[in-house]
Automatic annotation (TrEMBL):
It comes from Ruthenibacterium intestinale. It comes from the Bacteria. The keyword Membrane applies. This is Amino acid permease. Pfam families: AA_permease_2. It is found in: Membrane.
């Protein structure tokens, strides 16, 4: 039973209809029309590179603001955010082990909910294709803005042109092959991790303990703990955006039934620890009210420790972080468009692969065109608001799909099972 069966709209090449169970089993065979060239290490690089963008460098200010300056609540929010994402990742790892194919969440939803699946797949796919995936232009705009700071600032039009140029260059590089694109993400991941670790070490080893003590006391205003914690966790979750990204490349991952869960768990646990230590380090050096008031607290920390001249170095590190995240997006997300096209829910041209590189060229070029369009017609904040709104709905449905498939097909081969089922999926 070949994977090409199922990528063509629930029917074989001779037009014979197949059941939902057969559809899942076809994908479960592990056969793929694309080459499985993505090793465990490069997969961690792609996923980590996509998640760690610019957010870690300034989101800590928002988290403390939402928590009314309560450092204890802020730290708890970073821990809870990591645990929520880890639980969700374990749920998608079970689905990915059953259906190790390109397309990720889109593929899982279109093969889980019976008669509702076509509608869910259609709405999610078109939402992603028109808004969600091209919305990654927001990352390019952040990168262009940071580059502008090195040259005294750019106008909005200059930022749009530069952001578009970044998208073009990264798309061309990734069209040469998934291996090359994943190497770029991995190299830039090392750069950003080294930069973050450098800040952490400097804060704990070189800096004086000039920040406020970590207590469960509001320092900037009154407010109940639970609402403050809830808002803080939402801000934290934005820093983990892209946690499901490697699922989109399930068809290119080496030994996906084993490696998918390992990649997701190792990456998310590592990033959670990194985020937690980074924020503890910053709070050790900078008072809480100063963190909340700062537009770039990382810049301020480096200024305190090494002087303002070192700000250029950290700005370059942030630019590498942003570009690395965007590169992973451009590498990963055309796979969803490709899967949609193979299921006849998007234009057929995007369902073809390059014979030379094995890459979904048409899907990548479509996303590039839309990203350039968004660079000129909207703002970073508008893109983020729209993406966050609908993403939560489909992630919730995907996680609940673990319970649905356990009930409908308890005998399916499950190389990985969610620990603590059904408590973990329900809590997530």
């Amino acid at each position: 039973m070949r994977n090409s069966w199922i990528q063509k709209g629930r029917e074989t090449n001779d037009g014979r209809k197949i059941s939902e169970r057969q559809s899942i089993e076809a994908l479960s065979s592990g056969e793929s029309e694309v080459k499985r060239t993505l090793s465990f290490g490069r997969a961690v690089g792609v996923m980590g590179g996509l998640i760690i963008g610019s957010g870690i460098f300034y989101t800590g200010s928002y988290v403390l603001d939402y928590s009314h300056g309560n450092a204890g609540v802020a730290i708890l929010a970073w821990i809870l955010g990591g645990l929520i994402v880890l639980g969700a990742a374990m749920c998608l790892s079970e689905l990915g082990g059953i259906m190790p194919a390109n397309g990720g969440t889109y593929v899982y939803l279109t093969r889980t909910y019976g008669k509702a699946s076509p509608l869910l797949g259609f709405t999610m796919g078109w939402s992603d294709a028109l808004i969600g995936i091209p919305g990654n232009a927001a990352i390019a705009m952040v990168g262009a803005t940071y580059i502008g700071t090195l040259f005294g600032g750019f106008s909005s039009l200059q930022i749009s042109f530069l952001a578009s140029g970044i998208c073009v260059v990264l798309t061309v590089l990734n069209l040469l092959g998934a291996k090359g694109g994943s190497i770029i993400s991995t190299v830039l991941l090392f750069v950003k991790v080294i930069a973050i670790l450098g800040v952490i070490i400097a804060c704990f080893v070189l800096g004086q303990n000039t920040g406020d003590p970590i207590t469960f006391t509001n320092t900037t205003g009154e407010g109940a703990v639970l609402p403050a914690l809830a808002c803080s966790v939402v801000a934290v979750l934005w820093c983990f955006d892209g946690w499901n990204s490697i699922c989109h490349m399930g068809g290119e991952l080496e030994n996906p039934k084993k490696n998918l869960s390992r990649v997701m768990v190792v990456t998310i646990v590592g990033i959670t620890v990194l985020y937690l230590l980074f924020n503890l380090g910053v709070m050790r050096i900078v008072p809480i009210e100063d963190i909340i008031a700062s537009e770039n607290v990382t810049y301020d920390v480096i200024g305190i420790l090494f002087g303002k001249g070192a700000a250029t170095v950290i700005t370059i590190a942030i630019i590498c972080s942003v570009i690395g995240s965007l590169n992973s997006c451009i590498l990963v997300y055309p796979r969803e468009i490709y899967a949609m096209s193979r299921d006849r829910r998007w234009f057929a041209a995007c369902g073809k692969l390059s014979k030379k590189s094995g890459q979904p060229v048409a899907a990548s070029l479509y996303i590039l065109a839309m990203m350039i369009f968004y660079c000129f017609v909207t703002s970073f904040q508008n893109l983020v608001n729209i993406i966050v709104l609908y993403n939560g709905i489909y992630f919730m449905l995907a996680v609940f799909g673990v319970i649905v498939l356990r009930k409908k097909y308890p005998d399916l081969e499950r190389p990985y099972k969610v620990p603590g089922y059904p408590v973990v999926p329900i809590l997530v």
